[in-house]
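Lab notes, practical 5.
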Amino acid sequence: MVLAPPVATTTLAASVLTGAVELLQPLQLFSGRFLTYALGFFVLAILAALVGLRGVAGVSMEIARILVLIFLVLAVVSLVL
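Output from the prediction step:
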């Protein structure tokens, strides 16, 4: 007769403990999402410029520029901390 391993059940105490461990981890102010979004808006701006939509291209480049600046500021802050 083969016995199956016991199934782990999540209890309230385990959930609270997991949440407490996550709070104790180092502060992570940013992820790579700012850079990913900036690259996406940059590609959108290039495609819009090729099609002739100068207004969309300009707005997309401004959004990409702002996102890159936010990424750089948060990167420097996280390196200092």
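Observations recorded by the TA: The chain is about 75% helix and 0% strand. The first helix runs from residue 12 to 24.
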